[in-house]
Amino acid sequence: MLAGRSFPLKVEAHKEAAIQKVVKDLNAKINKFQIDYTSANKEDILSMVLLTYAVELQELSAGGQSDLSAFNDDLTEVDEILEAAI
Questions:
Q1: pLDDT at site 10
Q2: Angstrom distance (rounded) from CA 59 to CA 62
């Protein structure tokens, strides 16, 4: 369930926990934006959530951290969830 909608996904067993973690984080961010921006529609909310992930990635890159694999995995999972939604 993402943003109150069900998205059935086929995932490899070893990725399931990571996907559930990403979904939990996404739903928390979505809920926060919905509270903060009550007039925004779901598409706007999802765009803002995606932007926060992109900003976090940029900050990590600018900080000189070379190991972004965990964040990249999370971003990949977000991308897979959004692709499945389309």
A1: 86
A2: 5
| Pairwise CA distance, residues 42 & 24, whole Å | 17
- How is residue 68 written in tokens? 């972004």
Locate 31 and state its tokens: 């809920």
Query: Tokens representing 52?
Result: 């926060």
What are the backbone angles phi and psi of residue 48, rounded to the nearest 5°?
A: -65, -40
Q: Is the pTM of this model over 0.70?
A: no
Find where tokens 């990635």 sit.
Answer: 57
Give the separation between CA 83 and CA 80, rounded to whole angstroms: 5
Residue 30, classed as helix, strand or coil, is helix
**Rounded distance between C-alpha atoms, residue 16 and residue 47, angstroms:** 24
